[in-house]
């Protein structure tokens, strides 16, 4: 339990120093849909990232219940993977919608760098 709290505090402290301003959120690049080839590669990496979250006892799944929420999350992950947005933008957009999941968005951003 102490490890979880320490990790959360460390993550929050790191993110506090890296928070983008609101202007960078609104100035985000336009979303480019994936080509079939990119979609296939992205799916492979997305599966690896999803599997790695299941192996992490600290990671808590986000409640993505509607098709719109699932599509939003997939598009956000694709934009990160395709380098249409930065890691900071990914975390900021994600936590704007799901503020209780700072760790999860940070974890995903780091996982995409590994795969």
From TrEMBL:
Ordered alphabetically, the record's keywords are: Signal
Which segment of the chain is annotated as a signal peptide? 1-23
Q: What is this protein called?
A: Lipoprotein
Origin organism is: Sulfurovum indicum
């Amino acid at each position: 339990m102490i490890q979880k709290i320490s990790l959360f505090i460390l993550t929050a402290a790191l993110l506090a120093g890296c928070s983008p301003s609101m202007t960078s959120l609104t100035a985000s690049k336009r979303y480019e849909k994936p080509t079939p080839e990119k979609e296939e590669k992205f799916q492979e990496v997305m599966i690896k990232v999803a599997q790695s979250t299941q192996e992490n006892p600290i990671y808590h799944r986000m409640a993505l219940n509607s098709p719109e929420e699932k599509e939003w999350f997939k598009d956000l992950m694709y934009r990160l993977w395709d380098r249409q947005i930065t890691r900071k933008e990914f975390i900021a957009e994600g936590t704007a919608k799901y503020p209780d999941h700072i760790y999860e968005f940070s974890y995903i951003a780091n996982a995409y760098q590994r795969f």
